[in-house]
Amino acid sequence: MRLLGLWFGRLIGGLLLIGVLGSQASAQSYNTARPWTYWWWMGSAVNEKDITHQLEQFARAGLGGVHIIPIYGAKGYEQQFIPFLSERWLAVFSHTVREGKRLGLGVDLTTGTGWPFGGPNVTPEIAAKQWKLDGGKLTATLTKQQVKRAAPGGAGLVVDYFSREAMLQYLQRFDSTLNRLPDKPRAVYNDSYEAYGANWTTNFLAEFQKRRGYDLNSQLPALLDTTGSDSSVRVHQDYHQTLSDLLHDGFTVTWTNWARQRGYQSRNQAHGSPGNLLDLYALADIPETESFGSSRFPIPGLRVDENYEVDRFGTPNPLAMKFASSAAHLTGKKLVSSETGTWLADHFKVSLSQIKPQIDELFTSGINHVFYHGTTYSPQTAAWPGWLFYASTNYGPSSPVWPHLPFLNQYVERCQSRLQTSEPDNDVLVYFPMHDLWAKPAKSSGGTHQLEVHHVDRWLLQLPFGRLGEQLQQQGYALDFVSDALLKRLTAGPNGLVQSGNATYRVIVVPASTFMPETTLQALSTLAKQGVRIVFESAMPQQVPGYQNWQQRTVQIRQLGRSLERLKTVSVTANVAAALDQFGARRESWADRGLSFIRKKHGDTTQYFVANLNNQFTEDWISLATAGQSITSYNPLTGVTTPMAVRKGKAGQLDVWLRLLPGQSCFLNVVPRPASGGAPLAQPSGGRPQAEVSAIALSNPWQMQFGKGRPNLTTTATLPRLTSWTTLSDSAVYFWGTARYTTTFDLPTTTDLSRSFTLDLGDVRDVAEVRLNGQPLGTAWCLPYQLTIPASQLQKQGNRLEVDVTNLSANYMRLYDRQHPEWKRFYDINIVDIRYRPFDASRWEPMPSGLLGPVRLVPVP
Q1: Which domains does the chain have, with CATH numbers?
Q2: pLDDT, tens digit (0-9, with 9 covering 90-100), for 337-374
Q3: Residues 291-313: b if buried by 16+ CB within 10 A, e if exposed
Q4: pTM of this prediction?
Q5: Residue 173: exposed, middle, or buried by beta-carbon count in 10 A (0-12, 13-18, 19+)?
Q6: What is the pLDDT of residues 767-797, one digit of tens each?
Q7: The CA-based dihedral angle spanning residues 350, 356, 362, 366, taken in that order and rounded to the nearest 10 degrees
Q8: What region, left, alpha or beta, does residue 501 occupy, with left being phi > 0 and alpha being psi -120 to 50 degrees?
Q9: Geometric angle at alpha carbon 298, from 294 and 300, rounded to 5°
């Protein structure tokens, strides 16, 4: 326990350090371990009293901060609209930051309203542009795109993201307003790249000539060619490389430097950009990815909205998330954030049990700074459901999950406090062959490759890079990605390791690639000669990208490749996994049983976060690919640390008996010393630590009583078997609230009351607060719906179990939307359903609600 105490003390010390880091200008104090939330200001029709009220609600619920996004307004409140960056707007924003300091809440701000950047100060000269042919020459024309979902005072043209001069002129608006305030945000934010059709800038031709070495107009036929000829592919690579460079230099470097010079951090969603995501993410102080839609996890009991259109909107993908976390790892950034839980299900239909697996997927992908998407500022005078943003999920006070949101928040805080204070421990660094993607026909608007996170099947998974990345993850290799530019930051370390900042890797892998810049292969060659191990999948790259002098450069790269593959530290093979094993990359073999993980280091402790997002594993011995003397498990749901049963494995490794049901997660901490009191070594036979035990079904009738909710019901019922309360009466199909289920039971005479039991509630819709014999057991809010019954709390006879179940508000909305359609009174897109059609809950079918069971007692082995 002393070792655990020292480890925990170091962890808290690191957490406190993170918590006090803030904007140098405002010395803002905040807690990054807690989840933060997007906070939409509708019409910026806000006032100090309601700001304080809602911030206090956030703080009590366990949130760590807010991200303000001014947005379109609510009808009927026009007189209260506050123009963005006006004196009144700056006053209420300053009040928000001051109140945030008082409450320990951080405040971030979008550098604009809605998205993308733009507004009334964007003139045609600095607005987004696309190319057109004029007299057989390339020239610029406006895209005419306006800011989407703009707030009052924020409407206007979208700025030219490829122009440094345009960006500086755009940011002058903030220099003359926001930067004058003594109370400033922690960070400024840029949403995902959504400048549709933008593919040019005023000085593009001059920049192209300077960067690529020839006049693009001289190769106009190749640029316009859609047949995929060799010259066309190379000119298109040069075109996209120039766009990428200009986005990198014109927007990302300019905006990031501007922020830092004024005391702000930068949070950037680089995805969607027509550039190398790794390089763009790497520039931000806090790279941010996005989890949009619901993953199709095969967790028993996990609900997925049947109306969500996967083909249209895509699903989250861990490989896409790794672009942000890889960039952070390679550049030593402590925080990697995510827009989290967008459109998990339709409005009023999202449960906490749906949110947790999505967050676990983010954690295993390297994300450690969750931003809920999100909450909406709503005045206290607004009738339920208040003001709502058009896109689900609603995490705010009018949400059905709000009373129990602190449970999720505490879970996230416990996880992130560990993830933020540890270092990456990935062995494999996979090269991202951007030029191979640029060699393919572009599918996005404006004829560009926009690397989005929604439809990775349209670009990422079609590349050998994507296919190999999926295979390596499924095989249990811990990996990051590296770009051409970031690869040049790598240095050779001792014992063949390769380093970048605090990140250390054992092997670099180059997926099957056709194109590679000669400078990249030269950098790899230098590392290999210094002892770094490199695996090329199938063959060496045979082509250089780009048009200028490509024949001569191709000869050079092929000569370099032949020299490189003769080195002992280089392997060229179709069997990448075998080469990784030969070169000492650790493989967590249990990953192929459906377990997801991230491996990190905290001092001399190796820390695994493991999530069971599948339905293949429940319990077994697993062999960790990390040497150690003892292992403890930390349950972030309960905050309890437990010594693990272990046995000696191969090569000094430990096998550990892990019980992790589908939907569950835990931390495994491997230390190089025996645990205090000795590690609980199991028998060497390889069997279970204890014998299988039988579950006890609770089959007596249940008494059910409706409690607080809408509409008001006083119904009671005796249930011979558990069923949805929507079947009990016509009124019950609309009920949103809490109902109490009560039953009594006796135990078999042979039951050992000195042992602990698990109370398995089966199917719960949607949160259950449980008491046994008058004593609280806890709240079950996520899958699987199980709680621990401590030893000696059960009786042989006369046990009384009470379960208070709260459902979602969807059933009540079926009635409310019919009776009060006037609540949908927002400008712009108003409020829509998950298919982006006008919202109409009156046609919904009732959602099952209550305790559905079956309920069982399971002795803990």
Answers
A1: 2-422 (3.20.20.80), 428-582 (3.40.50), 589-671 (2.60.40.1180), 696-859 (2.60.120.260)
A2: 999 999 999 999 999 999 999 999 999 999 999 999 99
A3: bbbbbebebeebbbbeebeeeeb
A4: 0.95
A5: middle
A6: 999 999 999 999 999 999 999 999 989 999 9
A7: 160
A8: left
A9: 110
